[in-house]
């Protein structure tokens, strides 16, 4: 009566309808506002936006922090993922469980925990003054450094999970083969492991980068308005100035950044595939 | 992956179709329920309000009113900007009957022709309001139901604050939190800084310049006043500009903290009730507004520390009055920004702030 494909299609209908009506249509309406001008269509709003040095600074900071967070997560992620894949099946499960655990805690709670750690009387400063690295507690909160740390902690699990599944698909004998042929650990990583797990890196990198540039709570709480990012600027435009047009311009820029990052990562992965 | 396949095969086909059939059945049942009218004869009053303290609002205000009016109150919550956008989307055929807005947002709604004047002769409790609350946005477009004071909360063991200008003292360098321009408190702080340093223009240029000179020593320009408790607790700050509604929580910290009474005075804000233009339940809307302004409802809301009363007949015990914005003198002394000025200059404040303070 039913074949599996038809069932699948039928089951997908409500979700597809819901996403189309509740997400795609409103987003299209919002984004169309960014190219609508007084006399039709144009990119005038974008040139206006980039003419302002504050906005340029915010865009640059968003790209810079997004890239830094992605690179850091990739470096830390490979180390963790390699360790997890090496571990036996029991430990692998436990490690993955530990990695997933923070994802179950609200980003708000995780971010507030950093306020306690990075505060004037917090753990980080006690360590710094205790080790005699600085006589006075350092101002860590409400700086780019704090936002960077918070974002890395927020998105590292996504990178680790992407890389673990990529490393699991790595044929078991390629690393020993390279070692037998006399490759050191560095060449093994850069010429064997990295090229063979690039898909996972592209997935993880895209998730982390788009996550980092669109995160709101972390930059708002750990950076505050002194470290304005595109997402915090977007919020300001909507909720203070009631200025949905600028907001839609910012939204388009964020989407474009996400797409560009994904394309670049894919390109880089393809280039390595030769 | 393999596990999923096993699971799929183990699912009997008959079970699968039964599952789908029951799913469809449920969906149909849900639809039938959704289109059923709630109750045949019961009328509904739709109120658009701030999200805070809705549970207490229900207990102190909605429930007692519902019991008498034989109607149902439905509340749409959200921040001012997004509720205003919704009112605009339904212009001429409003879903909302009564809206609760900050004075400048109500003013914006009036300019956009979304609300209509309130015939105050129909409100029994109107005469009980403080003068400030009677006609806060002009033309009787709204009535004030609460206001709050904004001043400086400070560590009395570390600094002395007798003037808004004292915020610039060296002892507060790296120990001060100020509201961001995005908060309700932001513009009011600029008003007072402007006043303290002899500013004369409605775009608060003097105030903005002062704040931008101080910005290196400001720990953060906060977006959420809830953060202040933690910042005081961790010794991160010795002073902050804050609304009176933050005071009860901050006071609990057991630190030597004080609420400043600067010589230029304190500032604050006022919230108003408005009736949407074309509301189909005007009689209920008026009855509801009258209920909200009544001495009983205003007292209940004040006792639960939800809102300071705008009704001058409300009598409060000392410990409650102390944390709210209460009493004729207090109310008279508030330096409020005229809502017209907010509308005309808000964009200029945000732009000036972004150009000088935010970078």
Question: Can you tell me about this structure?
Answer:
In chain A, strand 1 (36-37) and strand 2 (40-41) form a beta hairpin. Chain A is built from 13 helices and 2 strands; from the N terminus they run αββαααααααααααα. Chain A has a two-stranded antiparallel sheet with strand order 1-2. Chain A is an all-alpha fold and 274 residues long. Chain B has 359 residues and is of the alpha/beta class. Chain B contains 15 helices and 10 strands. Chain B has helices at residues 2-10, 13-35, 54-69, 80-89, 103-111, 131-134, 185-196, 205-214, 227-233, 247-251, 282-293, 295-303, 318-323, 328-332, 339-356, and strands spanning 43-49, 71-77, 98-102, 115-116, 143-155, 176-179, 218-222, 239-243, 257-259, 267-276. In chain B, strands 1, 2, 3, 4, 5, 6, 7, 8, 9 and 10 form a 10-stranded mixed sheet that branches. In chain B, helix 5 (103-111) packs across helix 15 (339-356) and helix 7 (185-196) packs across helix 8 (205-214). Chain B starts with a helix and ends with a helix. Classes of the chains: A mainly alpha (274), B alpha/beta (359). Chain A binds chain B through residues 1-2, 7, 10-11, 14, 53-54, 57, 112, 115-116, 119-122, 139, 141-142, 220-221, 224-226, 228, 235-236, 238-242, 244, and chain B through 13, 16-17, 20, 27, 79, 81-82, 84-85, 108, 174, 180-182, 215, 218-223, 227, 230, 234-236, 346-347, 350, 354-355, 358-359.
Shape designation of chain A:
globular
Give the strand tally of chain B: 10
Helix proportion of residues of chain A, in percent? over 70%
In terms of DSSP E residues, the strand content of chain B is 15-25%
Overall pLDDT confidence of chain B:
87
| β-sheet strand percentage of chain A | under 5%
| DSSP helix fraction of chain B | 40-55%
Number of helix segments of chain B? 15
Mean pLDDT of chain A: 89
Head-to-tail CA distance between termini of chain A: 48 Å
Which value, in Å, is the CA radius of gyration of chain A? 22 Å
Helix/strand/pairing class of chain A, anyone? mainly alpha
Task: Order the strands across the largest sheet of chain A as they lie in space.
Answer: 1-2
Shape of chain B: globular
Q: What pattern of helices and strands is seen along the backbone of chain A?
A: HEEHHHHHHHHHHHH
